[in-house]
Every structure is written in structure tokens, then in C-alpha cells.
Amino acid sequence: MDAIFMAAYIVPMNKLQRMKMLATGLLAVAGAVYVAASALEPGRPWLRYVAAAAEAAMIGAIADWFAVVALFHHPLNLKFIPHTAIVPRNKARIAEGLSQFIQQNFLSSAAIVDRIRGLRPAQALCGWLVNSQNAEVLAGYATRLVAYVLGAADDERVRAFLSRTLSEQLRQADVAAGLAQVLDVLTEQGRHHALFDELLAGLDELLAREDTRKLIADEVTKNAPSIMRAINQMFALKLDEKAALRIVEVALRKVSEVRRDRDHELRARFDAFVLRFVERLKTDPATRDKVHRLRDEALESPVLAGYVAGLWEAFRAWLPGGMRERLPAMIVSLGETLQADAAIRQWIDEQILAAAPGLVEEHRAKFGRFVEDQILSWQEEKLVAELERHIGPDLQYIRINGTLVGALAGLAITLATDLAR
Questions:
Q1: CA angle 359-361-363, nearest 5°?
Q2: 43-62 burial, b if ≥16 CB within 10 A, otherwise e?
Q3: Half-sphere exposure (CA, 13 Å, Cβ side) for 363?
Q4: Vertex 101, ends 97 and 107: CA angle to 5°?
Q5: Closest CA to 101 of 302, 375, 301, 421
Q6: C-alpha closest to that of 129 among 352, 356, 345
Q7: How far apart are CA 66 and CA 367, in angstroms?
Q8: Are 343 and 122 in contact (CB under 8 A)?
Q9: Phi-psi region at 44: left, alpha or beta (left = phi > 0; alpha = psi -120 to 50)
Q10: How far is CA 63 from CA 16, 72, 139, 152, in A?
């Protein structure tokens, strides 16, 4: 990696050095041509034009050399010359300008939203998820992450910390008030009656079962007076079965009445009981203390702690393997489901596009500030070296062009002057 980085750094520097040598070589050639033409000019009038072109080429080359060098350095280290070493002197202004340029042209809300819209993120996500290889990779990352977290949490210090913190938080929690709030939500607009109806339906089904009637008959037999049991056995009257059947019939009829009648007395009693219980949870110190004692007893119970620990150990042992086995298929299934549902894909795109402007506006200044701070943190020498390394070779063409254009301009001016005489 270091070799690649050094190669990437050295190659542009070699190019910069080659371009500098070429530009300086042209200046030297122009100087040599000027000296030779001036020396051989007597007896050869046409060499006057060559000397003029070479002289103008040297002037252009020196002027453009000064301009290029003044961008990054003080030419000939003459620091008193104004407007030289422009880049290092204006590092702060360059950093701020580059930051603003990036924010306004690359990180604008409109530009990013248009880019996201063109990418169609939901469709791209579906296409990525349905690829089984991608699903395997994603499942592998998720499994390794979960395994790492579970392994880290298995440390005795972590487990002690979590247990202690969770216990402290639960001991401080107002369980009674929380339970009251939950019941308030359930009883709002009579939603608790749905639970009551499910309870009645289950009771109805339970009473209709043959084993329930047999259980009731057995209980009737066990609790009947001895004389009744003797008469029942003597005459084989099966009073226990008849009593059980009668009890079940009455119970079924009562349950059916309550299920059909929304204004039944038992429903009113149920409502009154729930409302009283909620009010007691909120205001009755005795009820609240009882709930909190139950909470503390549950937290201190070694049986409950052992049961929870066993569940956790079993879950922890199953989770990595279970995830690795099932998660890839679940990911592919999710992708296929999204792919088949155009409405949900449109919704995903809409949510992303709606959220993007706010996120961009919130964070783009931070990206711009990062660029600005990064530039400001550089030493002036590093800033100059980086810029010169990347754009220096192109700047040498200014020197080359200055030399050639100067030569043509000097020749043209000399010819025009002679023609004008």
C-alpha cells in the first residue's frame, strides 16, 4: 500500500520536473539563439529578425516564469515583491472559498435529491436484496456483529453491570403508574371489551369440551354430601353427570348472553372493576405498595433469575446459528416482496426524497467545514506541494506558451516596424 502511495506521489512529481526542464530549456534555447543571432548579425541582416524573436521569447518566458512561481513562492526569494506567494498567503480564503464551492455546487439539496431520484433507491435496494450472494454477505455481517455483541456481553463484568443497572432502573420504576397508563389506553373507547370478548370465547369453547364436563362431574362427586353419594351409587342415578351437565348449560347460556348483549350487567361490572382498579393504581397507596412489593419480590427471586438466565443462555446459543441459517432466505424474501409491491417501493422513494433535503441542509455545512479545517490544518509548505504536484505540470505550459507566443510577437512587431518605416 505504501509503495502504491509513493508511486502515485512520485509519478506526478517526475512529470512536474520534466515540464519544468522543458520550459526552462526553451528559455535557454531562446537565450542561446539570441546570443548567436546578435553575434552573427553583421553581414547577415535577416538574423536581426531571429534575434528580435529570441529576445521577445526570453521576455515572455521570464515574465510567465515569474507569474507561475509567484502563485506558490516568492520568486528568487524576494519577499518584498507584492502579490507573490499568493496561495500560501491566502490559504484561509482559499479554504473558505473551496468549502463554499463544494457546499453550493456538490452538496446542495436540489443536486442531491435529483441524484437520489435518478438512482431509484427502492428499486436498487430490491435488486440488491434478491441476489442470494448479497443476502449471504449481509447475513454474514449481521451474524458476526450479533456474535461479537453477545460475546462481549458474556463477560462477567458486563453481565454484572447490566444486571445491576437494570435492577436499579426497575426498582426505581413506577410500575403501578405504568400499568395504570397501559390500562387507560386499553380502556379508551372500550377497547378492553375486545379482550373481554376473547376471554368469553375461550371460556365458551372450554365449557363445550367433554373433558370439562367430566372434570365438573368429578368435582361435584367429590364435594357432594356422603348421603348423596351413597344414594347416587345405590340407585345409579348419575346425579353428578346430570349436575355437571346442568352447570355447563347454565354457564354456556350465561356466556352466550354476555357475548350477545353489549349492555349486559356483567359487562358493566367488568367496566366498573377495571376503572376502580386503574384509579387505585393511580391514587391508592396500599394498592401501589402491593404492586411494587410484587415487583421487588420478582426482582429478588432466585428462581425467576435462574429461569431468565436459562432462557438467555439458550437464546444466546441458538441465535448466531439460527440467524446464519435463516437470515439469507429472509433477506431474499424481503427483496422479492418489495420487488412485487410497486406501492411500497414508491413509498420508500418518497420517504427518502422527503428526508434528504433536511439531512443535507443539516449536515452539508459540517462537510464544508471539514474541508476548510483540513486545508487550514495543512502547513503552507504541504498545501503548496500538493497543489503544485497536481496542477504544476499544466502551469508549465504557460511558460512554454509564453516563450513561443513571445517569439512570434517579437518577430511580428519587428516586421511591422520595418514595414512602417
A1: 65
A2: eeeebebbbbbbbbbbbbbb
A3: 7
A4: 140
A5: 375
A6: 345
A7: 36
A8: no
A9: beta
A10: 19, 15, 65, 68
Q: Report yes or no: 84 and 70 within 8 Å, Cβ to Cβ.
A: yes
Per-residue pLDDT of the chain (421 residues), as tens digits, is 444 444 444 444 578 888 999 999 999 999 999 999 998 888 788 898 999 999 999 999 999 999 999 988 888 888 888 888 888 888 888 888 888 888 888 888 888 888 888 888 989 988 898 998 998 899 888 888 888 887 777 777 877 787 778 777 877 777 777 777 777 776 766 666 676 677 767 776 776 777 766 666 666 556 555 544 555 554 444 545 566 566 666 676 776 776 676 777 777 777 777 778 778 878 888 888 887 888 777 777 777 777 777 777 777 777 777 777 888 889 899 989 988 888 998 999 999 988 888 888 888 888 888 888 888 887 888 878 888 888 888 899 999 999 999 999 999 999 998 888 7
Computed on alpha carbons and rounded to an integer, the radius of gyration of the chain in Å comes to 45
* Cell numbers standing for residue 228: 348423596
Whether residue 117 contacts residue 357, with contact meaning beta carbons closer than 8 Å, is answered with no
Any residues with CB less than 8 A from the CB of 275 and at least 6 apart, and which? 187
Cell of 395: 502551469
Burial (0-12, 13-18, 19+ Cβ within 10 Å), 399: buried
Q: In this structure, are residues 360 and 102 in contact, taking their beta carbons and an 8 Å threshold? A: no
Q: Mark out the alpha helices in 224-301 (DSSP H runs).
A: 226-235, 239-260, 265-283, 285-300
